[in-house]
Specification:
mainly alpha; 90 residues
C-alpha cells in the first residue's frame, strides 16, 4: 500500500508547525513553558531567536510548516520506494 505523499506532507506540516505555534503561544502566557524546546528550535532554524514575541512565533511556525512538509514528503516518498522494492522482490 502506497502512502499519499501530498497528504502526509500536509499532515506533517500542520502537526509540526502547529506544535511550534502552540508552544510559542503558551510560552508567551506562561514565561517558562517550553523555553528549552524553543531554544532548541532557535539553534536549528536560522532567523529565529527564541521566545521573544509574537513575531518570533510566526517565524518559527513558518519554519515548522516548511520543515514538516518537506519531512513528510521525504518520509512518504522513501516509504513508497522501499515498499515497492520489497513487493517486487518478495
Amino acid at each position: 500500500m502506497a502512502l499519499n505523499i501530498k497528504a502526509l506532507s500536509v499532515t506533517a506540516a500542520v502537526l509540526w508547525g502547529g506544535s511550534l505555534f502552540l508552544v510559542g503561544v503558551v510560552n508567551q502566557i506562561f514565561a517558562n513553558y517550553g523555553e528549552a524546546w524553543l531554544s532548541l528550535a532557535a539553534s536549528i532554524y536560522p532567523g529565529y531567536d527564541g521566545p521573544t514575541g509574537f513575531g518570533s512565533i510566526i517565524v518559527v511556525t513558518l519554519y515548522g510548516l516548511l520543515d514538516g512538509a518537506v519531512g513528510g514528503a521525504v518520509f512518504a516518498w522513501l516509504y513508497n520506494l522501499v515498499a515497492t522494492r520489497r513487493e517486487s522482490t518478495g
